[in-house]
Amino acid sequence: MNIQGQAALVTGGGSGLGEAAARELARLGAKVAVLDVNLDNAKRVAADIGGIGIRCDITDTESLQAALDQAAAAHGPARILMNIAGIGTAKRVVGKDGSAAPLDDFARVINVNLIGTYNASRLFAAACAKLDPLEDGERGVMMFTASVAAFDGQVGQQAYSASKGGLVGMTLPMARDLAQHGIRVCTVAPGLFATPLMKQLPEPVQTSLAASIPFPPRLGKPEEFAQLAAHIVTNTHLNGEVIRLDGALRMAPR
Description:
Layout: E1 7-11, H1 16-27, E2 31-36, H2 39-49, E3 52-55, H3 61-75, E4 78-83, H4 103-128, E5 140-145, H5 149-152, H6 158-178, E6 183-190, H7 196-199, H8 203-211, H9 222-234, E7 242-245
Parallel strand pairs: 1-2, 1-4, 2-3, 4-5, 5-6, 6-7
Helix pairs in contact: 1-2, 1-9, 3-4, 4-6
InterPro entries: NAD(P)-bd_dom_sf, Sc_DH/Rdtase_CS, SDR_fam
Protein name: NAD(P)-dependent dehydrogenase (Short-subunit alcohol dehydrogenase family)
Family: Belongs to the short-chain dehydrogenases/reductases (SDR) family.
């Protein structure tokens, strides 16, 4: 798909990897709707790229549908969806005091990362399926954002790894399901990236994490994630695939 002139939706577009993806899509000529629970961040990014910033909670169908409607009114029907919104947590199954991990924490991460992504994807796909086909019969493309934790999650990452593993497992069946509508589905599983959250860690910790990456021995750059996201859009034969973007990193247990 040619990105130029297409309407694109980026969940979690107000910061980090989502912001990088929004900026790259806009640079390539897309009309970008920046969707984020933090409206100030969404508007800040949108103002920089000539897009529209919309508050959106992907776990709330009413909020999500309203955001999609607002984006469509501004830019026309979207053919590109970047699912990047997500949260993390670290909880041992049995705490130091011997108590079981709170179930609410596990459910919250699954609800945002996995169910929220599915929620955005199903609404996007239903609207996209009604559009006229482009070259190769393509109507749209969506990307999930997983993590290397889907494959080698560390101690305490049960909820996060399960949510990202769910996205990996959902990729191929959703691609097969939506093939009849000309909608492609791919997933990127990033490793350690220099996001605002990462930069909050002490410098020695960041240096140590970077040194664990075989090559290049540095944290990933958000723009590298964004470049891959954009390539998924433009390479029509990429479908049903999960791509690790991690510098050959394999996470240790701790």
